[in-house]
Amino acid sequence: MKPKVTMIAWNQNDNYVVTAVNNHLLKVWNSSTGQLLHDLVGHADEVFVLETHPFDCRIMLSAGHDGNIFIWDITKGTKTKHYFNMIEGQGHGAVFDCKFSPDGQHFACTDSHGHLLIFGFGCSRPYEKASSAFYRISIPDQMFFHTDYRPLIRDSNNYVLDEQTQQAPHLMPPPFLVDVDGNPHPTKYQRLVPGRENCADEHLIPQLGYVATSDGEVVEQVIGQQTVDQDEPGLEPSILDGMIRQLQLEQDQRTGADQESAPSGPQNGEGTPRRG
């Protein structure tokens, strides 16, 4: 198997670079000389989460699809703590993301079963009310932005653009929530995305299209907004929608003129006035 890098992260002071490889190893490199310092062994599946400690340059967190969460001392090449995300009756849950708190005393993880895991020091009582409210929302197991893995390109000025829409990523409309296969979630979940809280239902239905992948496979994918409110700031109105509105307006005007010029007829409900 040819080794491939799946994730990369610098430590807090940028002296070290940690790479996750698809052979389940983590490699620690000297960022100045490029020298390999340590091989970190422990994961049994691919790692897609590398998170540095907010102020301790020695500490790096890793997590992966094997359900393992490791805290490493990358200066010594040793593991300082290990957690395994075992779910009763369902096996382990793959860990999709992790983040440290600003004070470095806690970190939170999300897994493939829709769980939010909070690790840290002290009592868990402050989180009990929050966690009970969280589970009452009943969110889907898998939640991703449809733009998470869309390819980027650079223009002639070396600015980054979204490959499909040719727009700068920060100028694009708020993304849609999808599952791991790219299927959009119902509209009630789309309102969880900042910027879509007060949108009408018809503006929360994404437009699906067929996109060719790098392997030549054609897959269905969320490609953008289905309908756009022209009064909504920051979004360009659809040209096709504008033409349809204009045609409808002209038809309504013609219909109104015809009704005004038509002679009055019986109004008993059995017939309608007709133009001579």
TrEMBL record:
<keyword id="KW-0677">Repeat</keyword>
<dbReference type="InterPro" id="IPR052060">
    <property type="entry name" value="Bromo_WD_repeat"/>
</dbReference>
<dbReference type="InterPro" id="IPR015943">
    <property type="entry name" value="WD40/YVTN_repeat-like_dom_sf"/>
</dbReference>
<dbReference type="InterPro" id="IPR001680">
    <property type="entry name" value="WD40_rpt"/>
</dbReference>
<feature type="compositionally biased region" description="Polar residues">
    <location>
        <begin position="258"/>
        <end position="270"/>
    </location>
</feature>
<dbReference type="GO" id="GO:0008360">
    <property type="term" value="P:regulation of cell shape"/>
</dbReference>
<dbReference type="InterPro" id="IPR019775">
    <property type="entry name" value="WD40_repeat_CS"/>
</dbReference>
<dbReference type="GO" id="GO:0006357">
    <property type="term" value="P:regulation of transcription by RNA polymerase II"/>
</dbReference>
<dbReference type="Pfam" id="PF00400">
    <property type="entry name" value="WD40"/>
</dbReference>
<protein>
    <submittedName>
        <fullName>BRWD1 protein</fullName>
    </submittedName>
</protein>
<feature type="repeat" description="WD">
    <location>
        <begin position="40"/>
        <end position="82"/>
    </location>
</feature>
<feature type="region of interest" description="Disordered">
    <location>
        <begin position="248"/>
        <end position="276"/>
    </location>
</feature>
<dbReference type="GO" id="GO:0007010">
    <property type="term" value="P:cytoskeleton organization"/>
</dbReference>
<feature type="repeat" description="WD">
    <location>
        <begin position="1"/>
        <end position="39"/>
    </location>
</feature>
<dbReference type="InterPro" id="IPR036322">
    <property type="entry name" value="WD40_repeat_dom_sf"/>
</dbReference>
<keyword id="KW-0853">WD repeat</keyword>
<dbReference type="GO" id="GO:0005634">
    <property type="term" value="C:nucleus"/>
</dbReference>
